[in-house]
Amino acid sequence: MKDFVASSGRSSPHVLRLGADRSSGNLTLLETGKPVYSSVTQEGPLITEDLIRQKEECVVGARCSQLLSDMQAFEDVNPGCILEDFVRWHSSPPD
What we know:
Layout: E1 20-28, E2 35-39, H1 49-54, H2 56-77, H3 83-91
Antiparallel strand pairs: 1-2
Protein name: Rab3 GTPase-activating protein catalytic subunit
GO molecular function: GTPase activator activity
InterPro entries: Rab3GAP1, Rab3GAP1_conserved
């Protein structure tokens, strides 16, 4: 982890961001204008085509839970973010 931010809700130039991997380039939060930080996220499981066909419902559930986990991690390292900030970050190509 490169950036560390512990936010107490107060405005401070030195903030410890736990769970932040790095700053996301030029992306800024839409409502606050603060930089967007990439959160450390979990890697998705490796799944074969046969397994996907056999357990389609389980795969959909796993993808939903991974997306929820990514959203929560993003929100933790980007206080004041809104859903649109997450969508922009999650949709952008990796650095």
